[in-house]
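Exam review. A common question shows you a sequence with its structure tokens and asks you to describe the fold in words. Practice with the pair below. Do the first one on your own.
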Amino acid sequence: MPRPTNKQELLDLSQLNFEKLLTYIDALPEGQKQKEFPSGYLNRNIRDVLAHLHHWHQMTQDWYKVGMTGEKPDIPAKGYTWKTTPDLNREIQKQYKNITINEAQSFFESSHKSTRALIESHTNEELFEKKRYKWTGTTSMGSYFVSVTSSHYDWALKLIKKCLK
């Protein structure tokens, strides 16, 4: 399915990809769920991937909260730029290394739900009109939500399948 360009497409595709990801993970034998990924991948296992998704939900929600007050949020995070996102992702991985896969999945499910609620609270125009909000720059708020939901979930599922081959 192409990248969502309106609210309903975003809600539908984000939910579809969320369910596909969790259905795939839930169907795995316990040993596969705990399996380490091959070397060379930042995320070392499914727990890391789910924690990564959760943390990006949280960051996006923080951008939203700050941005909607008229302030400029630290995007992607304080002390980081889009060019240094790999460093940020390494810090995220370290932050969650001591939680269980079940905790990571619970965090992910909860932050998906709260991110979805933010999306639902806006009109199509509020989500997809470019330059509507100062904090989103030249893009739309919806593009941030697409990136952190449907597109990110698709990336996660592909990564997990590739690493568990």
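Now try the second one, then compare your answer with the model answer below.
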Amino acid sequence: MRIVVKVGTSTLAHATGNLNIRRVEQLCKVLSDMKNAGHEIVLVSSGAIGMGIGKLGLRERPADIPTKQAAAAVGQCELMYTYDKLFSEYHHTVGQILLTGSDIQDPQRQKNFHNTLFRLLELGALPIINENDTVATEEIVIGDNDTLAAVVAQSVSADLLILLSDIEGLYTADPKTDHAAALIHTVPEITDEILRLAGAGGSGLGTGGMATKLRAAQTVTAVGIDMVIANGAKPEVLYRIVDGEAIGTRFIGRKTV
């Protein structure tokens, strides 16, 4: 299988913004094992700004663009150093791709991205993709890595997109305020009723939320790609998702004519 895995900031970092070492080590171990089993893996990784916040000693996510970009510049170095070190321990080579909205919207730049990504896979490397937060401004921003992951999954004709977050999946109501809320295991079709379940934003260090995840599901299911939202607290759950177990919420891909 060709699998795109997106990990959110809340999965990679503690609430302090500092790296969750145990979890990231386990994530890299599981993804390496999945590659050893013959799967092609593309990792879309959040966390640059969040890790930069921790390393710079900032108390909260900055509101102004220059400080966000400075945090991203610091955090991206830390993030890729960590990935390179951990994947190397399992004899896998990583390659970094940083994108802006222009790289997705401009046909020639999108083609260049597509060619680079496929060549990395052909060479056996594990591509790690993030938005280029050090230069992205309002005009060229993609906005969130759920959207980016959907674009990547579509670009490489993935078999499956997995979004790992700090939530179990899509619920019938907000589980934080409604104790009767039930996890929805399968979504065969994204209806208006499903979209209304999105609720409000994500974690304090990240930019995503259920609304961005449902938009990602709309994008990939329309081209026949399944998508799963699951809790990334235990990365070994990836094995069970790939085996088809009912983990989190699975959105069924239905290619439209």
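Model answer, second protein: The CA atoms of residues 105 and 220 lie 17 Å apart. DSSP finds ten helices and eight strands in the chain. Full marks require stating both points clearly.
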